[in-house]
Amino acid sequence: MDIRSLRYFVETARLSSFTQAAELLHVTQSTISKMVHQLEEELGTPLLIRDGRRLTLTDTGRVVYARGQEMLATMRTLAAEVRDIQATRRGTLTVGIPPMINLLFTPALKAFRERHPDIALVLREETGQQAERLVAAGELELGMTVLPADPALPVATLPVATYPIWALAAPGTFRAGRKTLPLKALKDLPLVLLTDDFAMTRSLRHAFTQAGFAPHVAAQSGQWDWLVEMASAGIGVALLPEPFVDRLADEKLHAVRIVEPELPWQVAHVWSGRYLSHAARAWLDVCAEVLG
Fold it and tell me: Quick one: 182 and 257 in the same domain?
């Protein structure tokens, strides 16, 4: 059923006049008459009884008029919703975000909620590697990870922020007053790392391989605060990005920055590389402004 024919019929029935419907719709009276006749032929039954200038609805005409009003109202609502989405006033967005990264995004989240209050934003806690897999499978539009992403997955990345990685250990582990530590010095030290599900651990293992040694991993945990506790207890050296070191540095820990080479903790958005919704683009814009 042609929506334009339906609209012409509804307006004609509402006004009980071909002439007034034509004036309202800015078309000729013959166009209105032709479109209504086309609708009647399509349905196989008359919709209007023409008695001179007087128009009345047939039984079928009354049903088509009532349902036609509902359909046209739905079309108007649809058009308004599409305009709202395109203007980034409405929408829904789910972002897969690792538990280590989420603390950094509180300012961006606050700014996004203030700027786009009618966009429903859901933060789904996933490790970076799992977020990459979900994006590649089409189950998530956007995810967060630590670079480099898995090269075997068909995903694109957009860097957000980069921080150096620091080593945290109990006092006495490093030379007093030391502020930096060559990467190779970790070869002879026990390490406490996040589990291998974390993209950061993947990045660290890659760096160890590039440096030519296999690390001595004393323990692994999915909780970064537990890593800090283990480091404080002397179980091993914890490796964490600078923002977390700033939060945790105290007299129980000696923090040194890894150098030669520096280990960058590169936080990035990951997406399919194809379509991005208006809500997703709005989120990226806010993140770039707040975190960039």
Answer: yes
